[in-house]
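Private note to self, pasted from the team thread so I don't lose it. Backbone tokens:
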């Protein structure tokens, strides 16, 4: 089944509409994709749980394209994705080296201990290429680097605690600012909406943490939460009540989660009886330690538990 550009545009339109981007956000995308010089998409995976890819693959729609693989493989000129691509090894490296203009999507943090050999995506002529080397080399030629998920953007769970492989965020490796679509994992609509803008060659307006303002610069999550002000949950798993006393991050961060929801708009954290853990925040998951240290009703400050080092 081949997906038409028209179908891809419908997918992007749905994602953009759900994010409040409006149809103007897609203006010119058809022309951009029809341009033979349109950038390819190259996706790399480093230190993470692959949940970012799984989340992306969870994109489902009632009409074509029915899933994210259709979007990437058949509509967006996917050059390589470690999970989706059939090719691997030296043949892939050859194709990657031939790439002209491409967008580099990176999922997962970058291990730097052991000269980077804790993560080796491929070999070249019998030599192991580290993820660190691949990121640095390919980012130099990329039209834009897009970090998919909190691990790539800020280190995330991959860089927490003892961090024996010395995982760093992508920006620390490339020395260049990245566009960050955080979340552990990020919502598939967030990835598609940002990718659509980049494919059009548009400038993505970002905040001080590299996050698209169109996604993360709006109202506090709390403001659109249907449970805000409805009772006060004192234990995890209680549904339909405000989670503020449990350390919910909804009052200090802005995400479209209440409106986009998750798993094809079936549910989201608060509806499932969990406070927002702040997974789009650069301090995540250190921030969630607040839940353990404070316990139920343990105050609403956001001072302690933050500022985890980033190597
Ligand atoms: Fe990290 Fe991606 Fe969290 Fe997992 O690979 S952002 S651990 S959901 O999936 O990088």
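Design output:
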């Amino acid at each position: 089944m081949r997906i038409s550009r028209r179908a891809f545009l419908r997918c992007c339109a749905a994602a953009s509409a759900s994010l409040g981007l409006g149809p103007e956000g897609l203006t010119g995308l058809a022309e951009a994709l029809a341009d033979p010089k349109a950038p390819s998409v190259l996706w790399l995976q480093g230190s993470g749980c692959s949940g970012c890819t799984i989340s992306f693959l969870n994109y489902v729609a009632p009409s074509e394209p029915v899933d994210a693989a259709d979007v990437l493989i058949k509509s967006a000129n996917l050059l390589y994705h470690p999970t989706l691509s059939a090719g691997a090894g030296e043949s892939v490296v050859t194709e990657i080296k031939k790439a002209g203009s491409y967008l580099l999507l990176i999922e997962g943090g970058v291990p730097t201990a052991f000269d980077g050999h804790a993560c080796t995506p491929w070999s070249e002529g019998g030599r192991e290429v580290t993820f660190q080397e691949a990121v640095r080399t390919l980012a130099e030629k990329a039209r834009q680097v897009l970090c998919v998920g909190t691990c790539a953007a800020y280190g995330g769970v991959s860089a927490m605690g003892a961090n024996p492989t010395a995982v760093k965020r992508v920006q620390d490796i490339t020395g260049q600012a990245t566009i960050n679509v955080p979340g552990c994992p990020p919502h598939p609509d967030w990835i598609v909406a940002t990718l659509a803008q980049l494919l059009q060659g548009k400038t993505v307006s970002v905040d001080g943490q590299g996050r698209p303002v169109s996604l993360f610069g709006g109202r506090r999550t709390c403001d659109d939460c249907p449970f805000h002000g409805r009772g006060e949950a004192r234990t995890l798993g209680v549904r339909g009540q405000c989670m503020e006393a449990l350390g919910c991050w909804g009052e200090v961060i802005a995400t479209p989660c209440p409106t986009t929801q998750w798993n094809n708009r079936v549910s989201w954290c608060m509806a499932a009886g969990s406070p927002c853990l702040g997974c789009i925040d650069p301090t995540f998951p250190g921030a969630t330690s607040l839940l353990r240290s404070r316990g139920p009703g343990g105050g609403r400050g956001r001072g302690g538990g933050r500022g985890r080092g980033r190597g």
